[in-house]
Amino acid sequence: MKSISKETYTQRLDRLRIPDFYWIPYWEHRWVRDFDLISCFFGELRWGFIAIRYRPARVMHQFGYVQSIPGPPANSWVSFDEIDDRWMHYSHHLAPVGEICVMPGQCAADYIDWFFIILHPFMTTTQTSDPSRDAPATQPKHIP
């Protein structure tokens, strides 16, 4: 990684297409540790004074479920006591798991369109020497 320049690395990322991406990186390790429902907990996790938001709905395909468009992020913050209480009652804060994947990496019909609009904007401007690529689309009103 140290020998690759930032520009080269960015260009390689920009040129990735759906068949180039490995959607379920931990699938072959499932036999080592089976899926545990507590992995679907969503909310804040904390260790001491550090708290982070955990949103498994964004990676349901890695858990073996059909990937759908995740809901918008929560804007409110909660106290450490509330974080601890939610964790102790995690079963009330589980992301809906949806359907089991029939084939690895399966996703809802509109997910890939949403992915390219929301999560995968192009990182660099095109140069005249670059191969042509799809133009970024505008976000449809029916997608949150």
Task: Please characterize this protein's 3D structure.
The protein has 144 residues and is of the alpha+beta class. The chain has a domain at 23-119. 19% of the residues lie in helices and 7% in strands. It has three helices and two strands; from the N terminus they run H-E-E-H-H. Strands 1-2 form a two-stranded antiparallel sheet. Strand 1 and strand 2 form a beta hairpin. The protein is globular. The two termini are 36 Å apart.
Features:
3 helices; single chain; two-stranded antiparallel sheet; globular; 144 residues; alpha+beta
Task: Give me the count of strands.
Answer: 2
Helix and strand run: HEEHH
Give me the side-by-side strand order of the main sheet. Answer: 1-2
Largest sheet: 2 strands, antiparallel
What would the principal axes of the Cα set say about the shape?
globular
Overall average residue pLDDT: 76
Number of helices: 3
In percent terms, what proportion of residues is strand?
Answer: 5-15%
Q: Runs with pLDDT <50, length 5+?
A: none
Determine the structural class based on helices, strands and strand pairing.
Answer: alpha+beta
Show the helix and strand layout:
Layout: H1 6-14, E1 43-47, E2 50-54, H2 80-88, H3 111-119
Antiparallel strand pairs: 1-2
What's a quick, concise take on this entry?
The protein contains 3 helices and 2 strands.
